[in-house]
Amino acid sequence: MPLKIGELAKRSGCQVVTIRYYEKEGLLPPPERTDANYRLYNDSDVERLHFIRRCRLHGMNLAEIRELLAFKDHPTVSCAWINELVEKHIADVERQIASLQHLKTHLETLRHACSGDRQQDCGILDSLDHGSPCACCEDEHCALSEYQKSTDAEKKARVSR
Amino acid sequence: MPLKIGELAKRSGCQVVTIRYYEKEGLLPPPERTDANYRLYNDSDVERLHFIRRCRLHGMNLAEIRELLAFKDHPTVSCAWINELVEKHIADVERQIASLQHLKTHLETLRHACSGDRQQDCGILDSLDHGSPCACCEDEHCALSEYQKSTDAEKKARVSR
DNA sequence: CGTAGTGTCTATAGCGACTATAGAGTCAAC
DNA sequence: GTTGACTCTATAGTCGCTATAGACACTACG
To answer: Any CB–CB contact under 8 A between B160 and chain A?
Structure first.
């Protein structure tokens, strides 16, 4: 018994609009329709959507998922590249963690820079104004500025809600 | 001696278009102009832009930076809320780190799921198809799905390049 | 039978912080 | 005078959704 889009949304934990969006983006095939033009999904659609959501949870972007789906549909070559994809994501995640940990030490330095309750000469503002965030940031290879650069890749592999 | 926009970009490490964007967004005041309508920046603009970039590096979004700048320009109230802002960012960053570390364990499980070199029955694809990513994700409070939710806030405080 | 409430449809615009592109003007050096 | 680097404005694109508007479909209740 086929599902309407709302039921599929409930089962997959994503929103109705997101399902339609995946269809528009070519990740889900155009489903059958009722006489009233309502979308009808079958078991293979349910599985495909779950696959997509799992991939998103693993930080993959839609282009990568499209590739994986194409391979699933027509596994013509070796899957070695999938290993590489996963390795790449692990490396990405490690880089993000390192950057965030560094960022955290910076923020903690900031936190102790001001006692609060001041109308002027707030130590935090001073620090944001003049201080280099920490000694390591004096040189070119500050992890915090690396963090900036890393976010492009990061942005592309983001899951929201 | 005032700077043209390209020189300011070099000094601040951000791009020309980004500077114009900050002006459009009201973070930088409209600068003076040459007869040829080129923007001219003075020392206080340089400082202000550095302040903005440092804040961005600390993961603050443009709305927060606008608030900080307004306070810097007219420090009429206590700066206690700045401490709160920093605390909030630390908590955010901690949440992001936890989510990413969890994501990493998931990806590492995936990595060992397939030896590669297969045309069919790739273990990684199987795992993405059917497996729940890890035992902890069987219940409702999986950190990985928390990761999904956290990214809204995260997205708002992102620095790219 | 009407109607209220929910679900679905399409199309379009908005989010955040930029980034890219087009087409035109400016300036310095050769 | 012409090449190349720089600047200007205005507009559209990025990513993965999310929100909105206006219309149609379906079900339950009186």
So the answer is: yes
Reported as a pLDDT band with limits 50, 70 and 90, residue A77 is confident
Q: pTM of the predicted model, to two decimals?
A: 0.76
Q: Is the CB of A12 under 7 A from strand D?
A: no
DSSP per position, chain A? -PBPHHHHHHHHTS-HHHHHHHHHTTSSPPPEE-TT--EEB-HHHHHHHHHHHHHHHTT--HHHHHHHHHHHH---S-THHHHHHHHHHHHHHHHHHHHHHHHHHHHHHHHTT--S--SS--HHHHHHHT--SSGGGGSTT-HHHHHHHHHHHHHHT----
Q: Kindly report the CATH class assigned to B5-73.
A: mainly alpha
CB-nearest partner of A93 from B57, B94, B103 = B103
Whether nucleic acid strand D comes within 7 Å of the CB of A151, the answer is: no
User: Over the stretch B114-152, which tens digit does the pLDDT of each residue have?
Assistant: 776 666 667 677 777 765 545 555 444 454 554 444 443
Measure in Å the smallest separation between the Cα of B139 and chain A Cα atoms. 14
